[in-house]
Design a protein that fits this description.
Distance between the termini: 28 Å
Oligomer: single chain
Largest sheet: 4 strands, mixed
Shape: flat
Mean pLDDT: 95
Low-confidence stretches: none
Helix content: 25-40%
Structural class: alpha+beta
């Protein structure tokens, strides 16, 4: 978008109890448990949840001794699915484990001593993007930031017990009107939250418009904003009891809400030798630096890799006409090492931190090295 054009942009978020996010959290829990014992672990964990079934699949090579059943049940319990009356609950699910070891042919490309080049190569081919904008202090697009605040706020209110009728599954959506790429006002809010059968839709609506939205949207909330709450009328049956969840299906929720491009690779369940994750984190880090160092007001960075090779195939910078493009490209080329080993070391990615990234976006959170 350019000039003084007026447009509305909408992004969505989902809660930690959404079926796909349940799978992402289990996968990242497995990864963290591997890293807690063996930082050389190679992990590509996929999860499917439906009704009373949890399926683990993918490839893991590790020296860690993992009790996968305990990891899965603890993750589900942490999310909040503990009601034995529901078919999907932490103590009642049946766990199917189809994990195997990572292919030796991949290992020889991502292990320094075995690779053809003598340094750690990318764990797969692919393209990754990072995006940043000065429209918020977090350097994130405002619609996705606000949408995450709503779903995170629902989880907070559920966990405090102040609103005991709240249940783990939820979604939100926020529309923001822009003028000349500057956010002006929120034009629509949508909240769908799972709830106990005893609460009425009117009471849920009252909670959203008088308690949740004013608190989490702050100055972006106004009493005249249209707010839709549970527009189907009822949302009692939710989570994996009602819907199938799979890892990697919320990649736009995980990143920029559609405001920045996405290469298609998911994050959760993958160790940082997988550039789908580490490359995307680093592109976000670089895009942030372009904004922080005054080289642009909006920036997007793309990197592309070939499997087994350390040096990227290409690195591209776009400042959307908000800065000196050639200076920005030179800055990125001279200051940042996009080789997998360089990324892992600079962002300190060989740590069991990944459960903290799973929910409410991988970007814009304080405390993450790629946000520093």
């Amino acid at each position: 978008m350019a000039g003084d054009q007026v447009y509305t942009f909408t992004s969505e978020s989902v809660s930690e109890g959404h079926p796909d996010k349940v799978c992402d959290y289990i996968a990242d829990s497995v990864l963290d448990h591997c890293f807690e014992q063996d930082l050389a672990s190679r992990v590509a964990c996929e999860v499917l949840c439906k009704s009373g079934q949890v399926v683990l699949a993918g490839e893991i090579t590790t020296r860690a001794d993992i009790n996968y059943e305990k990891v899965v049940r603890d993750a589900i319990r942490h999310i909040g699915y503990t009601d034995a009356a529901e078919v999907f609950n932490a103590d009642g699910v049946f766990i199917n484990n189809f994990l195997t070891r990572q292919s030796a042919e991949i290992d020889q490309g991502v292990t320094d001593a075995k690779s053809l080049t003598g340094e750690q190569g990318a764990g797969d081919q692919g393209i990754m993007f990072g995006y940043a904008s000065d429209e918020t202090p977090e350097l994130m697009p405002l619609p996705i930031l606000l949408a995450h605040r709503l779903t995170a706020g629902l989880a907070e209110d559920r966990r405090t017990g102040k609103f005991p009728w709240l249940r783990p599954d939820a979604k939100s959506q926020v529309a923001v009107q822009y003028e000349g790429n500057v956010p002006q006002r929120v034009t629509h809010v949508l909240v769908s939250t799972q709830h106990a059968a005893s609460i009425s839709r009117d009471d849920i609506h009252q909670y959203v418009v008088t308690t949740l939205a004013p608190r989490v949207l702050g100055p972006w909330f106004a009493t005249d904003i249209p707010v839709d709450v549970n527009p189907t009328g009822s949302f009692v049956h939710g989570g994996p009891s009602a819907d199938c969840g799979v890892t990697g299906r919320k990649i736009i929720v995980d990143s920029y809400g559609g405001a920045g491009r996405h290469g298609g690779g998911a994050f959760s369940g993958k160790d940082p030798s997988k550039v789908d994750r580490s490359g995307a984190y680093f592109c976000r880090f670089v895009a942030r630096q372009l904004i922080k160092d005054g080289l642009a007001n909006r920036a997007e960075v793309q990197v592309a890799y070939a499997i087994g090779l350390a040096k990227p195939v290409s690195v591209k910078v776009d400042t959307f006409g908000t800065g000196d493009h050639s200076m920005a490209e030179r800055y990125v080329r001279e200051k940042f090492d996009f080789r997998p080993r360089g990324i892992i070391e600079r962002l300190q990615l060989l740590r069991p931190i990944y459960r903290t990234t799973t929910n409410y976006g991988h970007f814009g959170k304080p405390g993450m090295t790629w946000e520093a």
